[in-house]
Design goal:
Distance between the termini: 26 Å
Structural class: alpha/beta
Largest sheet: 8 strands, parallel, barrel
CATH topology: TIM Barrel
Low-confidence stretches: none
Oligomer: single chain
Number of domains: 1
Radius of gyration: 19 Å
Strand content: 15-25%
Helix content: 40-55%
Length: 308
């Protein structure tokens, strides 16, 4: 699966993933009013508004980016209708040719971990029928429970040609409370990075990169430089660009000499671009065009930082 992502990155020239993390406050009033008129001010109405909003974003950016990353919590808050909107978003994204990274941050052990992996990356059997319940291409995984929580995902990845991104050094300010703690003289994030490298050897793609990648925040460029060396064959999913303060110049060391090895996520900076001063001229009716403009600006910023 990582080979498919790399092919799309090379074709678009954009190592970018659009975070589909919708909140009702990001959705233009016209979309909300239409959904509420049809479904009432209900969970179903909120879910319909989210999907229609996402659909507009996807249509606008599909030609310019390789992947999208829906964050499942933004959908779960609206209950079952929200999860249905998540599934519709995944299906529509894949229909438009995009790689889908399910930002689910799951992590457990044994049959529980296997069930998470099967539901998001694999299949489940119901009688004589087989289903892919959510159908993402990649998923984010929390490694806190160790190999018992990660290896079931790797098994499913290997049998279904899928991939995972393991949380290593996250972009949030308090990440260092645990991740920077020294263990035998090394910060914990580096030890986790070494495990990602080890796990990655169990799931190598023919392209030469592993289907086991890592999440490393753009807000920590020095740690990104270290981890790029620790995990030479693992792609890095880089959150924290834009709204969280990361910029293109911070990202250079996340990539290898060929300009591969990382894919950078922006969520609010793209999907809520129409609410920013720089894109205010698009107005609410042009929210999707504003998202497209933000993607193109991000691509330019990263390309210039990489000297392309």
């Amino acid at each position: 699966m990582i080979g498919k992502l790399i092919e799309k990155i090379q074709r678009t020239g954009a190592p970018i993933v659009v975070g589909l993390d919708p909140q009702l406050k990001f959705i233009p009033p016209s979309i909300l009013k239409k959904a509420f008129r049809e479904h009432g001010e209900t969970l179903e109405g909120a879910a319909e508004a989210i999907f229609q909003f996402n659909k507009g974003i996807i249509n606008a950016v599909a030609e310019y980016v390789p992947a999208v990353k829906p964050q499942i919590a933004m959908y779960e808050q609206f209950g079952i209708p929200g999860l249905q909107a998540f599934v519709r978003t995944v299906e529509y994204s894949r229909k438009k040719g995009l790689v889908v990274i399910g930002d689910i941050k799951r992590g457990d052990i044994g049959s529980t971990s296997m069930s998470y992996a099967a539901s998001h990356l694999g299949t489940v059997d119901v009688g004589s029928e087989t289903y892919a319940p959510f159908g993402e291409d990649f998923a984010t995984v929390n490694p806190y429970l160790g190999s018992d929580g990660v290896k079931p995902f790797i098994e499913v990845c290997n049998s279904h040609n899928k991939g995972i991104f393991v949380l290593v050094k996250t972009s949030n300010p308090s990440s260092g409370e645990f991740q920077d703690r020294l263990v035998d003289g090394k910060p914990l994030y580096e030890i986790v990075g070494e495990k990602v490298r080890e796990w990655g050897e169990e799931s190598m793609d023919p392209c030469g990169w592993s289907n086991v990648g890592a999440v490393v925040g753009a807000t920590y460029p020095e740690q990104g430089r270290i981890l790029r060396t620790v995990m030479p064959k693992s792609f890095i999913l880089v959150p924290g660009y834009g709204a969280q303060g990361g910029k293109g110049a911070d990202l250079v060391h996340f990539f290898d000499r060929d300009g591969l090895g990382a894919v950078v996520n922006s969520s609010r900076g793209i999907i809520a671009a129409w609410q920013q001063e720089a894109y205010a001229s698009y107005g609410e009716a042009g929210y999707a065009d504003a998202a497209q403009a933000a993607v193109l600006a991000m691509r330019k910023d990263i390309s210039e930082a990489l000297g392309r």
